[in-house]
Amino acid sequence: MIKILLFAHLQEKAGSDQLTIDKEQTTIRDLKNILKETYQLIELDQVMTAVNEEYVMDDEIAKAGDTVAFIPPVSGG
């Protein structure tokens, strides 16, 4: 299983700050597509992604036991 952490408006839309996906491995791109279809998280194209606390690109592979965090852009002043 792959653990997914969601922040800000993503967790509000999904109804949870944590999700799990029952996969042995998948690319971040495919994981985003699964979440877009299942939870209507179309905003995932605009977020930073970290696997095990290291930022990655969409072609990175997430494996069972990994923690994937989707971090929306923040603004402030």
Automatic annotation (TrEMBL):
GO terms for cellular component: molybdopterin adenylyltransferase complex. The keyword Nucleotide-binding applies. Keywords: Molybdenum cofactor biosynthesis, Nucleotide-binding. GO terms for biological process: Mo-molybdopterin cofactor biosynthetic process. InterPro entries: Beta-grasp_dom_sf (IPR012675), MOCS2A (IPR044672), Mopterin_synth/thiamin_S_b (IPR016155), ThiS/MoaD-like (IPR003749). Transmembrane segments: none annotated. It holds the Pfam family ThiS. Pathway: Cofactor biosynthesis; molybdopterin biosynthesis. One of its GO terms (molecular function) is nucleotide binding. The keyword Zinc does not apply. Gene3D superfamilies: 3.10.20.30. Belongs to the MoaD family. Involved in sulfur transfer in the conversion of molybdopterin precursor Z to molybdopterin. NCBIfam families: moaD. Heterotetramer of 2 MoaD subunits and 2 MoaE subunits. Forms a stable heterotetrameric complex of 2 MoaD and 2 MoeB during adenylation of MoaD by MoeB. During catalysis MoaD shuttles between the two heterotetrameric complexes. This is Molybdopterin synthase sulfur carrier subunit.
